[in-house]
UniProtKB/TrEMBL annotation:
<keyword id="KW-0378">Hydrolase</keyword>
<keyword id="KW-0547">Nucleotide-binding</keyword>
<dbReference type="Pfam" id="PF08000">
    <property type="entry name" value="bPH_1"/>
</dbReference>
<dbReference type="GO" id="GO:0004386">
    <property type="term" value="F:helicase activity"/>
</dbReference>
<keyword id="KW-0347">Helicase</keyword>
<dbReference type="InterPro" id="IPR012544">
    <property type="entry name" value="PHb"/>
</dbReference>
<dbReference type="InterPro" id="IPR037063">
    <property type="entry name" value="PHb_sf"/>
</dbReference>
<protein>
    <submittedName>
        <fullName>Helicase</fullName>
    </submittedName>
</protein>
<feature type="domain" description="Bacterial Pleckstrin homology">
    <location>
        <begin position="2"/>
        <end position="121"/>
    </location>
</feature>
<keyword id="KW-0067">ATP-binding</keyword>
Amino acid sequence: MGFFNAILGNAGEMDLEEATEELSTILGQGEHIELAYKLVRDMIILTDRRLILIDKQGMTGRKVEYRSVPYKSITMYTIETTGHFDLDAELKLWISGQHDPISLEFNGKTNVYTMQGQLAAKIAGK
């Protein structure tokens, strides 16, 4: 899957109020955002119900793909960090029905373990 491949840079944490305002039209009734990350124009959102991957395409970013992944569909994930001096991290998610994982990269300012903990709790709550 080529999701986020053309974008340079890594995801960093995003303000929850900003994310909620931007995504108010696609959130379900009573659904709320728990964690949000931004990668240039693209976003990674963890709500109380699902994982949302947002891919803004083209030069203007007017075409947008919203990929909604129910937590129960995540079969496995891995986190790989690069070490003590370069704290960038990569998260890979395996989704049922897909052969290849979704790969997401995070910058050193992002606490990827917060996301890992959230995913662990959501997946265990299947």
